[in-house]
Structures are given as structure tokens and as C-alpha cells.
Amino acid sequence: MQKFLVPGAVSAVIGIALGTVATLGITAAAQQNTRPEVDRSGNADSSLLNQVEYGSR
User: Fold this and answer.
1) How far apart (Å, rounded) are the C-alpha atoms in residues 41 and 6?
2) What sign for the dihedral angle of Cα 35, 36, 40, 42?
3) Which one of 5, 12, 13, 52 counts the least CB within 10 Å of its CB?
4) Distance CA 16, CA 24 (A)
5) pLDDT digits over 3-15, tens only?
6) What's the maximum distance between 2 C-alpha atoms anywhere in the chain?
7) Hey, CA dihedral for 45, 42, 33, 27, is it positive or negative?
8) pLDDT tens readout for residues 37-55
């Protein structure tokens, strides 16, 4: 019984440790915790924000 119990317990502990490290590593790699930069290089005088533009008639 002892020759199966000890290796089984060691294998379970190693499996849990590897699973935890893999889960935390994948989660950290998949995170997006930065916000994108806004492009503010446009000309404010030519913007038509909240104005209806029907085109040339």
C-alpha cells in the first residue's frame, strides 16, 4: 500500500502546483489592463461633432 500511496500523493501535489501556475500564467498573459491612446491629431475646426451633414445639394 505504501509504494502506491506516496507516489500518488506526490503526483497529486505536483499536478495541483502545475495547474495553479498554468492558470495564473495564462490569466496574466490574457489580461488587457492598459487603455488605448486617443488620437488627438485631428483639426478641431473641421470636425462636425453632433451636427447633421447632408452632403452637397
Assistant:
1) 66
2) negative
3) 52
4) 12
5) 889 999 999 999 9
6) 92
7) positive
8) 877 666 656 656 656 666 6
Chain CA centroid to CA 57, Å: 48
Phi then psi for residue 18, to 5 deg, are -65, -40
CA distance 40 to 23: 39
Q: How far apart are CA 28 and CA 26, in angstroms?
A: 5
